[in-house]
Amino acid sequence: MLDPIADMLSRIRNAQMAGKSEVFFRASKIKMAVSNILEQEGFIEAASQEKNNDNKETIRVVLKYNKVSNTEKMPAIREIKRISREGNRVYIKKQDIRKIKNDFGIAIISTSRGVMTGEGAKKNGLGGEYICEVW
To answer: Phi/psi at 112 (nearest 5 deg)?
Structure first.
C-alpha cells in the first residue's frame, strides 16, 4: 500500500457505494484525525479506534446515509477526492484556501498545528498539505 490515506478514502467511498453500515482500516494518527473531522462535519456517524482479533489497532467508521424515501438511502458523502498524493504533494497557502462546492463541502488540510478543515486553517492563518476534498 503506497498511500494509506488514499486507501482509507477509497474504502469509505466503496463501502458507501455498496451500502455497508461500517468500514474498518488500519489505524494511524493522521487517519484518525481525518476520520474525526469527517465525524465533526457530519459526513460520517462515528469514528473510533479499537483493537482487532490480531491485537492490532484499527479504526472503525460508522457510515452515514441520508434518507431519500422510505426505501431509499443516499450516502452523506457524495464524493471524496484525494488531492495531495505520494508522488505529487500539493501544498496550499492560507490565502489560496477556497470554499468547496459553495460551502457544501470541506477541504482537509494537514497544518503545523495538526489536521483541520480548510475553514479552520484559514481562520488560524495556516497553510499546509492539501489532503482531500469532501462533499
So the answer is: -70, -15
Give the cell for residue 10: 477509497
Nearest to 90 by CA among 33, 132, 36: 132
Whether 39 and 46 have beta carbons less than 8 Å apart is answered as: yes
In this predicted structure, the answer to whether residue 112 has a pLDDT above a threshold of 80 is yes
Question: Which secondary-structure segment (H or E) carries 130?
Answer: strand 128-134
DSSP 125: T
User: Do 93 and 109 form a contact (C-beta atoms < 8 A)?
Assistant: no
For residues 42-66, one letter each, b for 16 or more C-beta atoms within 10 angstroms of the residue's C-beta and e for the rest, the string is ebbeebeeeeeeeeeebbbbebbee
What sign for the dihedral angle of Cα 45, 49, 50, 51? Answer: positive
Amino acid at position 79, single letter:
E
pTM, two decimal places:
0.94
Helix axes of 4-17 and 29-40: crossing angle, nearest 10 degrees = 40
**4-134 has which CATH code?**
3.30.1490.10
